[in-house]
Amino acid sequence: MTIETTGAAAPKIGFVSLGCPKALTDSELILTQLRAEGYETSKTYAGADLVIVNTCGFIDDAVKESLDTIGEALASNGKVIVTGCLGAKAGQGGGNLVREMHPSVLAVTGPHATQEVMDAVHVHVPKPHDPFVDLVPAQGIKLTPKHYAYLKISEGCNHRCTFCIIPSMRGDLVSRPIGDVLGEAQRLFDAGVRELLVISQDTSAYGVDVKYRTGFFDGKPVKTRMADLCEQLARLAEPHGAWVRLHYVYPYPSVDDIVPLMAGGAILPYLDVPFQHSHPDVLKRMKRPASGEKNLERLQRWREACPQLVVRSTFIAGFPGETEAEFEHLLDFMREARIDRAGCFAYSPVEGASANGLPGMLPAEVREERRARFMAVAEAVSAAKLRERVGATMQVLVDHAPALGRHGGRGRSYADAPEIDGTVRLLAPQKASKTLKVGEFTRAQIVATEGHDLVGTPV
Ligand code: SF4
User: Fold this and answer.
1) How far is CA 24 from the centre of its chain?
2) Mind giving me the DSSP string for 49-82?
3) Among 58, 202, 283, residue to substitute to test ligand 1 (most atoms within 8 Å of Cβ)
4) Please, is 264 exposed, middle or buried when counting C-beta atoms within 10 Å of its C-beta (0-12, 13-18, 19+)?
5) Beta carbons within 8 Å of 393's beta carbon, 6+ residues apart
6) Phi, psi of 53 (to 5 degrees)
7) CA 334 – CA 298 distance, rounded (Å)
8) Quick check: helix, strand or coil at residue 316?
9) Distance 160 CA to ligand 1 centre (A)
């Protein structure tokens, strides 16, 4: 993704942002700082004085994409700074992987390193003398559409799941001060954001690293803790009628306190809980957080307290040593838990992950076959749950509405997070006077399902 702005002659920086929403928020912070200091951004490599590549290093395909992009930027421009997860990764020679592959890059940093990136930019393309500080919108620069935004509440992770290398790249959990997080949320709502997506590596652990210390927002004390954060976000969202959606929540008992907020409509009744598996022995081999929790019972209690709750999750099929019985346990869990939206990866070793040393690596065909069997069950559950919505009237946030939606458009209900879930295809409104606008809510009567999506008539 490249970004463009226009204006008077000022140093121009090209920017390529790869990777997950957490990387996207890092990009936004760097872009905001660049703009604050008076730099411009360039749409093309050739038109830039320097190029920053924010990389992803999570899976092998992402590593390849990142390395190819760096190579392309070097060939077209020559002056390249690399940041992001791949920048923290060691190469085969024991040094830095990016430097081993592309020795001519000017600087390499890990993720969440706005200041280091800016320091490197200052060395190679000095700061303009007259920063256009007043050109920076108060909410910073966003790479998402104007009506939704990701809010990163912490960086890093205290867990050590055996299949994951994120902690080695991003370090232990560091929670952002609650006052900063709420201040950013306030600015985003004021700027027109209608859906705030809370992200981190482990949202339920927010504040653990600072022992839930008390911070301040609006002159009042607030604890750095998930429940307090959710209450405050709900309070800030309410005057705007905006949604607050939670991602990466682990099934800890503390989450029980959030469910009443969902039942009351203050926070969207949507939980993204990455279960990864159901069998206790597999979860132990994975070293998953909350592996000792009784997940099925907990889910059932959440649903009793909040019947409209939608649960999204991801799973891994064919983890090393997974027996057929353990896999069947996962299929049974899926049927009973009725997870609304499930994704599944066939296990694949990630360089540097400790799971690579576990015994019982399964052949690729078995891993893939289990993934396909899992997805068949997951899709049947999901399709049945979608069909239950036909006839209901749902609130829909409009993402796409050409010609004011006179011929219809596309949006999402509370059950659909952007990019990862389904959508609601909006038919032409029945009333000729009704229009649809991107970033506004409409109500829609659901008339059909279409794969992972719903079809609705705006009312
Ligand atoms: S919880 Fe596990 S999978 Fe998630 S970032 Fe931490 S170590 Fe990785």
Assistant:
1) 9
2) SEEEEEE--SSHHHHHHHHHHHHHHHHHTS-EEE
3) 202
4) exposed
5) 443, 444, 445, 446, 459
6) -115, 115
7) 14
8) strand
9) 6
Residue to mutate, 166, 173, 288, ligand 1, most ligand atoms under 8 Å from C-beta? 166
Task: State the distance from the centre of ligand 1 to the C-alpha of 274, rounded, in angstroms.
Answer: 10
User: pLDDT truncated to tens, each residue of the chain (459 aa)?
Assistant: 433 333 347 889 999 999 887 788 889 888 877 876 778 888 888 889 999 999 988 778 888 999 999 999 999 999 999 999 999 888 887 788 998 999 999 999 988 888 789 888 988 888 775 544 445 566 666 677 889 999 999 988 999 999 998 888 888 999 999 999 999 999 999 999 999 999 999 999 999 999 999 999 999 999 999 999 999 999 999 999 999 999 999 988 889 999 999 999 999 999 999 999 999 999 999 999 876 678 899 999 999 999 999 999 999 999 999 999 999 999 999 999 999 999 999 998 888 899 999 999 999 999 999 999 999 999 999 999 999 999 999 999 999 999 999 999 999 999 999 989 999 999 999 888 999 999 999 999 999 999 999 999 999
Tallying the residues shown for the chain, one arrives at: 459
The whole-model pTM stands at: 0.76
* Rounded alpha-carbon distances, angstroms, from residue 48 to 54, 143, 396: 16, 19, 40
